[in-house]
Amino acid sequence: MLRVTGIKIPVTDKVPDLQAALLQKLGILARDLQGFTIYRQSLDARSRQMLYWVYTLDARVKNEGRLLKKHAGDKTVSRAALPVYRPVKPGREKLPHRPVIIGTGPAGLFAGLLLARTGYRPVLLERGADVDTRTRVVARFWQEGLLDPGCNVQFGEGGAGTFSDGKLTTLINDHRCRYVLEELVRCGAPEEILYYYRPHIGTDILRLVVKNMRHEIIRLGGEVHFNAQVSDIATGDNRLQGLVINGTEMLPATVAVLACGHSARDTFNLLVERGVQAGPKPFSIGVRIEHPQELINHAQYKKFAGLEGLGPADYKLAYHSPHGRSAYTFCMCPGGTVVAAASEPGGVVTNGMSTYARDGENANSALLVGVTPEDFGDDHPLAGVEFQRRWERLAFQLGGENYHAPVQLVGDFLAGRPSGQLGKVRPTYRPGVTLQELKKCLPAYVVATLREAITVFDRKVYGFALADAVLTGVETRSSSPVRIWRDDNYEASTGGLYPAGEGAGYAGGIVSAAVDGLKVAEAIISRYRPLD
Prior knowledge:
Number of domains: 3
Largest sheet: 7 strands, mixed
Strand content: 15-25%
Structural class: alpha+beta
Radius of gyration: 24 Å
Helix content: 25-40%
CATH superfamily of the largest domain: FAD/NAD(P)-binding domain
CATH architecture of the largest domain: 3-Layer(bba) Sandwich
């Protein structure tokens, strides 16, 4: 096939005629075109006069060699090369027991899927509930403020990403990324995630996808156990021997993928107590900011806002303070909601979520400032966890100790005064909000950096500093505060344990976590021979 880049179609064209544009670009007749597919679609919004969809197309043509010679020197026409995932060769070492996977977030599910597909019949352990039960439990928390520490936005089938925007953008460049997207499509995700420049699934479709992945793992010989928390590990000669489930059941295991997620604080504590090497790592804390989605649409699309097919606008912003701190937006959810994401009693945690349609009235994103182990004031491996906990508990107290979140209007936050009443922007956080001063539940340097950043971001996205925009505190779980050490073979300091994904400190987001799960599964496959 030929890969043709840079095909631009005005967004005002209701039905883009890609074939006509492709024929013109290549200088061929329709009879010479045997078919084409979209490899990538992005939006060029740099011009105020017109917005363009920009396509990269893979085309099957007659006389491909002759066309390549004709377009020699034209960098926009080349031979297409799709990344192909090639399984690793299985090793020869005997596996005494079925491999175990702790956690069913992206890392755990993709590690489990690959191991199941290769004949290893993995056993997946999930401390939370299946996605349907979990959805009901989370809905009750949002409605009534009744937190279940074992099953919530952080714990349960699909991991924390299940209640998010289902964003699939990633900064990593790895051939496994395409494989991850293809597997998601196979399990029910929309096919457009294979080519759209900012792919997302949405929380509603993602719940179906993770359920289908579970069914596929079981069909291939794996097992999935819910409400099964690893409460202890048994070792001998510094190698894994077994896992204690729910404090009572011993499961023999010599190989376990540790994909527990970034909020498994009790698991982190257990590992450190049992001598597994780990350390604190940088992460970020801050707030969620909410604007009317219509405001963001006009700021980004200008006169084209509201045009059918454009969808809700988003943004991605960063600011580097002269004082050395950095602030940035993260996990932007167009047409979404701010959600209660606590996993421990006595703490308020926020996150963002949207459905596939992204049809809510507000846009929200995390507005974060980076923190490092130097900020924690302690070199203990779990110092970052205690740092998170401190601000979450202060937010809980400010909110009224009922999981209501403290909120402040942007205008008041910038002026350093309390908010007396809400404005035109209605907060979407449930079970409720309480007007407070957010400086009471954030470090002073975070508050100062956020104030600087909001003013700068307003020059990039007009209206970002809208006085009535709502800040909701606190967001502390943007990434893991812990990194569990592993060697070049992906094995922890305790042999047989394989840390993986975001919780272990090696990923950030759905795709990168899934890729890391695949890498760990490959390490196991390359060492051990299949059970089947």
